Each structure stands twice: as C-alpha cells, then as structure tokens.
Automatic annotation (TrEMBL):
Transmembrane segments: none
Entry protein name: GDP-perosamine synthase
Its EC number(s): 2.6.1.102
Natural source organism: Modicisalibacter ilicicola DSM 19980
Entry keywords, A to Z: Aminotransferase, Pyridoxal phosphate, Transferase
Active site: residue positions: 215
Amino acid sequence: MLQPLIDFVRDHYHTNDFIPLHVPVFGGNEKAYVAETIDSTFVSSVGAFVDRFEQDMAAYTGSPRAVATVNGTAALHVALRLVDVGPSDYVITQPLTFVATCNAIAYCGAMPIFVDVDRHTLGLSPKALAEWLEAHAYRDDRGLCRRREGNGVIRACLPMHTFGHPADLDGLLRVCTDWGLALVEDAAESLGSTYHGRHTGTVGDVGTLSFNGNKVITTGGGGMILADQALGKRAKHLTTTAKQPHVYEYVHDELGYNYRLPNLNAALGCAQLEQLDAYLTEKRQLAADYAACLAGSDVTFVTEPAGCRSNYWLNAVICTDHEQRDQLLKATNEQGIMTRPIWQLMNRLPMYNHAPAGELSNALWLEARVVNLPSGIRAGEEELG
Ligand SMILES: *Cc1c(COP(=O)(O)O)cnc(C)c1O
C-alpha cells in the first residue's frame, strides 16, 4: 500500500519537491480585486467587497443571511452568543475536533461536554448524544435542559463536520428538539458540503465557516456566520461593536466585538468563491482516485456519508491499527509527502481535561488510526516549475 500511495501522490501533483497537506491557490481575480480595494482606499472594516462576499456566500449556501467575521473562531464565538450561551452554561460537542470548537465555548464562559462521534461520519453521534442526555440530564419545569450533577444549564449542541464530511444532522436535530437544545454547526471545514441537499451550516439554528489559509477557500484569515434574518441581524450588531446606527453619535448598546472582516480580505474571498465549484470538482476527482489507489489494501479510505455530498477538504484514511498509522506517517513524511494524524482528543488537553465526558470509544479508536493525505488544489501548469 505504501509505495503505490506515494507514487500516486507524486504523480498527481506532478513534482519531486515537497508536497504539503493543503495550500491555497490564487489563479483567478484575486490580485485584481485586492488592488481594487487599495485603489479605493477602502481596505478596512467597511467596503463593497464585504457586502458582496456576504451576499455571494448567502446565495451559495442558501442561508437567509451571512455575516463575515475576522476568522472562524470569532464566528463560532458569536454563533454561541446568538443562542444565549453564557457563563457557567454547558455546550455538548465532540472530542474529535480542532481546538477552536472548544475555545469558542470557553470564550463564552461556558464549558464543553464531550460526547462520542460516529465512525462513519467522524462527527457527533446522535445515539451517543441521546444516551448521554438520558443518563445525565433532565428538563426543568421551564423546559431548560440541565445536568443532573450540579443542575447547570446545557444550552446547545455543537457538532463539527470533520474534514468536510457532514455529521448526521437529522439525528442530531431530533435529539436537540427533544431536549430543548440549540443546534450550532461548526462548518469551518465543510464549505461546499451538503446534507440531503442542504448546505452544511444551514440546518441548525446557526452555522459557521472558516476561510483560514488551509481551508477550501481562503481570505487570508476570515469566517462567516450563517443564520436566519433575525439572528443574522443580531450577529452583524455583535460583530461590529454593537453600535446603533446614528449619523454622528457613538451609541453602543451592549458588549460587542470588533470581529469584522476587512474589505481587503473580503476581496480575496470574492475571487476565491468564484473558483469554488472548480476546486470542488478537482477535490472530488482526487478523492475518487485515492479510493481507487487504496482499493484492495487494508487501509480504509473515508468517503462521504450516505445522502451527503462532501467537499473532501482533507482526504483521510483509517489504518488497521496505531502501528500501521505510524508507519504511514513516517514513510510519507520522510519522502517529502506531508501527512498528518488526526487531532489529539480535546478531553486530554489541559484546558478541557476536567470537562464532563461520556463514553468515547469511537473517538479513541479513530484517534489511534486516522491519517490525512495531501488534498490541495493543483496550481496552474505554469506555476509547477
Ligand atoms: C479552521 C477551523 C475553525 C476556525 O478556525 P479559524 O482559524 O479561526 O478560522 C473552527 N473549527 C474547526 C473544526 C476548524 O477546522
């Protein structure tokens, strides 16, 4: 499996140089749009590209409203505020995620509760969620979901669409409805992925995207809140210092944030979004080619869940055991092909190792076996050197 895989990656990227996991490619209107912001002097917190990026992203995802932010973590922080997550609350999330998911919960003064993932989606498991709630939570006479231990309010559930593969949103929505929990989707990795035809991040109460440099498209740094009109309006208010519109007075009516995406970054985003569909086509083909290359080997290539369309942001394999995982990581990295293990589980990090956690056997199983393979878009032939 190892040598054919290495040969395949070298052949696909057509180079003997180092092959990164995922790097941005700028082959469209990026330079023209960024130059336009400089020429106009509107490089900062207001400008036509911010409005256009928000409108284009709302249209692309089918979200009633899209609000641009300075990064995906800030988007997630405000998304949780939108569903009233506050100090001493709890938010249920998955241990198998990037640290930003948990950090956003902590920024609200809330604490994560870790519940297991499903092996076929890599995302939060509705079954594990329901079981944890049955055993550890109750609904009070106002309908609030509370922990049996200490009576703290569990405000929301925050699944993440791992590597672009949608979590089981119908299942999660059902459990959240039963228990009075808000559903916030961390769709940072899944721009372009759909769940039963609906864009990820638009199924729950609110969703968030990231345009960091390693994501499907980038604004340098940036993020987006996807919400309905009412929550979207409030998101805009909170992310722009909670300033009331006035011709000249400074009236800030609550604690807000300076989480605006600069126009300079939005210009990059508009140009990148124009190319997203082409990127997704190329990524889908690469995933199919990886699957074909690995067919018949003992590693399992991770494919989109039934009824979903994944953006295949980062291709992933599940090794038979930890030893094979290490062999794969060592052989590829030694040969200049960047591969990476999946994240360490969040419940082991010093900030979160006191947080409540359910039984996490699938997360542990995946943590020991999953490896990401190079997944970036190829640059134009003239840039290949
Ligand atoms: C990238 C990412 C984010 C947001 O990251 P930013 O760098 O702040 O844009 C949040 N959650 C997950 C799972 C991510 O992968």
